[in-house]
């Protein structure tokens, strides 16, 4: 699946020279560098590239790293993503870079960020194009690393491969249109991808879902001819521990809004409303491949939100596995209904110690935070701290939203215990707090990825379309979990 080989060594046809903005001495190709710098042809801006490639010359590529004081793991990812794209364009087959020690950056993580950026440049979703976009010209990329760090770096590179495979799986699942990616297809793909790694996958159909009493989940699925599926994925990496993390992903394989129908523009990308599910599946792939010594269960309540003679309607009062009743004021606030039952299952059947849910839950979150931050709601500040640390390392920023008790007033029901929308004010918060009613007081963090899971344009090292966020955060969190 990943064609590019990243190797520790010093071979390679082309040498990549790293340049900070305004740097004086390069050590190599100094004359050429000074010429380019004087003429302002190459300044060393982040991701800027100047290639000097010909059959006779010493082949070098200058790669800008931007301001030295601003260097971060994420800027390395961005720069090397650009480099990866450029190597493809130039049809280069092998290249190398000497990786220096940067101030304030761990050497292993530096190499991991470089490897990730290069691998990220390999992604494309072109299975439906008659003429493929991807030409895998670059075969080998060598990292010349400090002698005594070789083993650590190699370990890090292996881990990056596992993580990127998880990210690419997530993207593939999200980019797949709803005509293909039905609840059953999602379950099949989870099996296909995860079972070979030793992840157990169980799938419940309608009958079992009914038996469990998942009435909220079932209500959402009623308008669709495609059977809902409850997907359970289990990785038991630590047989000596009874600790268990649950990762719960929103799995709407299509969200039309139901009878509270979405307008055409809003509906067109709603095949991506299973991005939370795709992220937990991708994270399970990375976790299984890396054989993390943790016990993790991933849960997805997969269904479609459609209109038909059988669909649920605004004004309906429905039950839930938790026994709480819910007034459906808006059938487009469906994600929280499916998640309510999945979360209750995580808390009470799985008896997870920590629950993280990932969901394309609200347009309100996109309005509040745009496409920069994931929005978070929690009932446990320590767990939130763990997620924040994991996300910072990943370069997937998370912003915690307030969750004062007062907000809960908005989702108190009139004729039932709860209502499924709290109106427009603080919509991302009330949606999150609704979920919090179904975790049975288990430490929990909710991640609203509505603004992050899918992008209308290429952005840094993320492609247009599905981004694969927050696979890295979930992976880092599980790896470091106490
Ligand atoms: N899947 C949508 C949220 C969404 C919006 C995801 C834009 C990605 C991009 C969710 O099911 C939804 O429709 N939410 C409603 C809730 C409202 C009716 C309370 C929304 O945000 O408008
Ligand atoms: Mn909706
Ligand atoms: Zn939705």
Mean pLDDT over all positions: 97
Q: What is Rg?
A: 24 Å
Number of separate structural domains: 2
Shape: elongated
Structural class estimated from helices and strands: alpha/beta
Q: How would you characterize the overall build of this protein?
A:
With 482 residues, this protein is an alpha/beta fold. It has two domains: 159 residues, Leucine Aminopeptidase, subunit E, domain 1 (3-Layer(aba) Sandwich), CATH 3.40.220; 305 residues, Aminopeptidase (3-Layer(aba) Sandwich), CATH 3.40.630.10. Helix content is 34%, strand content 20%. It starts with a strand and ends with a helix.
Supply database-style keywords:
alpha/beta, binds manganese (II) ion, elongated, Leucine Aminopeptidase, subunit E, domain 1, eight-stranded mixed sheet, six-stranded mixed sheet, binds zinc ion
Task: Give the topology, please.
Blueprint: E1 5-8, E2 14-20, H1 30-38, E3 49-52, E4 60-66, H2 73-89, E5 94-98, H3 107-120, E6 140-144, H4 150-175, H5 183-194, E7 200-204, H6 206-212, H7 215-221, E8 229-236, E9 245-255, H8 264-267, H9 275-289, E10 295-305, E11 317-318, E12 326-327, H10 335-348, E13 354-359, H11 363-369, E14 374-378, H12 381-394, E15 398-400, E16 418-419, H13 427-436, E17 444-448, E18 454-455, E19 465-466, H14 471-480
Helix pairs in contact: 2-3, 3-4, 4-9, 5-9, 7-10, 9-14, 10-13, 12-14
The protein binds ligand BES, manganese (II) ion and zinc ion (ZN).
């Amino acid at each position: 699946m990943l064609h590019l080989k990243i190797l520790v060594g010093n071979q390679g046809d082309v040498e990549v020279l790293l340049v900070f903005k305004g740097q004086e001495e390069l050590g190599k190709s100094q004359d050429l560098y000074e010429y380019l710098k004087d003429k302002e042809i190459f300044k060393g801006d982040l991701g800027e590239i100047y290639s000097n490639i010909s059959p006779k010359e010493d082949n070098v590529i200058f790669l800008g790293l931007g301001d030295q004081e601003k260097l971060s793991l994420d800027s390395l990812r961005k720069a090397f993503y650009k480099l990866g794209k450029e190597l493809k364009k130039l049809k280069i087959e092998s290249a190398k870079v000497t990786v220096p020690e940067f101030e304030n950056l761990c050497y292993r993580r530096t190499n991991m960020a470089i490897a990730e950026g290069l691998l990220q440049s390999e992604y494309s979703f072109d299975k439906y194009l008659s003429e493929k976009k991807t030409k895998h010209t670059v075969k080998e990329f060598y990292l010349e690393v400090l002698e005594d760090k070789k083993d650590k770096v190699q370990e890090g590179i292996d881990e990056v491969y596992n993580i990127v495979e998880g990210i690419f799986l997530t993207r593939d699942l999200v980019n797949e249109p709803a005509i293909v990616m039905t609840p059953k297809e999602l379950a099949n793909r989870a099996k296909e991808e995860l079972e070979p790694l030793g992840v157990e996958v169980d799938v419940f159909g309608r009958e079992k879902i009914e038996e469990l009493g998942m009435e909220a989940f079932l209500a959402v699925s009623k308008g669709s001819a495609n059977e809902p599926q409850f997907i359970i994925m289990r990785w038991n990496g630590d047989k000596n521990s009874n600790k268990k993390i649950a990762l719960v992903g929103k799995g709407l394989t299509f969200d039309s809004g139901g009878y509270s129908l979405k307008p055409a523009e809003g509906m067109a990308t709603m095949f991506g409303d299973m991005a939370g599910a795709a992220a937990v599946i991708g994270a399970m792939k990375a976790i299984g491949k890396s054989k993390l010594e943790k016990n993790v269960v991933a849960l997805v309540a997969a269904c479609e939100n459609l209109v038909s003679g059988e669909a649920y309607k605004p004004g309906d009062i429905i039950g839930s596995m938790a026994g709480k009743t819910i007034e459906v004021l808006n059938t487009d606030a469906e994600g929280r209904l499916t998640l309510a039952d999945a979360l209750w299952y995580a808390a009470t059947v799985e008896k997870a110690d920590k629950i993280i849910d990932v969901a394309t839950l609200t347009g309100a979150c996109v309005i509040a935070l745009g496409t920069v931050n994931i929005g978070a709601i929690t009932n446990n500040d320590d767990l939130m701290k763990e997620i924040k640390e994991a996300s910072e390392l990943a370069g997937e920023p998370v912003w915690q939203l307030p969750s004062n008790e007062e907000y809960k007033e908005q989702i108190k029901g009139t004729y039932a215990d709860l209502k499924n929308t709290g109106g427009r004010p603080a919509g991302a918060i009330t949606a999150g707090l609704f979920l919090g009613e179904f975790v049975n007081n288990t430490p929990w963090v909710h991640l609203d990825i509505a603004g992050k899971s899918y992008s209308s344009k290429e952005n840094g090292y993320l492609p247009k379309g599905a981004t694969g966020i927050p696979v890295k955060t979930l992976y880092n969190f599980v790896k470091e979990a106490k």
